[in-house]
Structure formats: C-alpha cells, structure tokens
User: Fold this.
Amino acid sequence: MRIFISGGCKNGKSFYAQHVAKIQQTGFLYYIATMQSADAEDDERIVRHRIERDGWGFAVIERPMDIEKILDQCDCGASFLLDSVTALLANEMFLPDGSVNEQAAQKVTDGLSRVMKRIENIVLVSDYIYSDAALYDQLTEHYRKSLAEIDRAVAGASDAVLEIAYTNVIVHKGKPLYETILARLPYVARHVHRHPVAPPHMG
Assistant:
C-alpha cells in the first residue's frame, strides 16, 4: 500500500510512519533519508530519528536528491519509508552553490511519480507547512506552494492519505484499505505524541 502522511512539524509523524512501514514489511525494509543537516537543530533531529528506528531492521539509504535513483539501489519489492518530501524539495530547490532551482517542484514530482509506480509498499512523510495565513517573502512562498503541488500529486497517487494533528490521525483517503493497517498498530503508535503539543491559542 502507498501511504502518504502529512501534518505539522515535529508532531510524531516519523514515529507513526515507522510503525506503519514495519507493519507493511515484505522482505527487506528501507528507510530513505532525504534530510541534509543545516544546523545544530537538524543534527539533533537526525540523531533522534536514528535512535527511534534503532533495532527496527531498517536499511538506511541516504538520498537527498534525485530520488528516483533509489530504484537502482534497492529491491523494489521490499517495503519503504521515505522521510521526508519536505527535505527532498529543500535540497532540490536550494542548491549548494547558493542558487535556486525554481523548477524543483516538477523534478521532485516526476521523481516521486516514478518511485511510486515501481514500489507498492511505501510510506511517504511530508510537513503541512502551507496551511497558515501568514505572509512570507517571495522565495519562501514559492517553496511552500511547490511543496503543496508535490503533496497533491503524491496524495493523488497514494492508496491512503493521513493527516496527523494534535494526537489525532485523520484518514482523508483510503479508509477501508487503511483499516487493515490500523488494526495491527501497537497501542503506543495510536497515541502519536509522546510529548503533547499545546493547541493554538484561541483568543
């Protein structure tokens, strides 16, 4: 099953996605890591994710760009967790030489489309960073809109689409199919936040 998981940043999506990918495991289990560290906070996040998946049996493939190349590196009949689409776009858009690839969204969409056509069991994680009404600079807005375009395409190609928000898992697509996964999730995965986040101030 191709499952797309989105939601706010740092709300337990990766933890939840690991459980879903493990349940879907058929043979080998791959963790496709797209994140490139830019600062100490990123370093901490990467270390935390490594600790969380320790002992789970993931074979880690670091692929920060050109995502379709995993098709040449991996057994496509295995199960996959790709974390995250957000980082993948950032890597493709903001290049090491300081330039910006404004066509990165199309490249990422095309790459993920090829991946999803070849791989049947995959969980893809993204961040819902385009939902607020704040005004940002032109480049940030371009990135946010690009991620929204990619996420729509991935959701369209997925069998199930989930949103994780304040400990709730909302199934937007494929609920009957996803219920076969949900029934096998351990208790700990049903309570996504290990460190609950306060809801937005309501006035």
About this structure: Confidence is low (pLDDT under 50) at residues 193-203. Strands lie at 2-7, 29-33, 59-62, 79-83, 121-125, 160-165, 168-173.
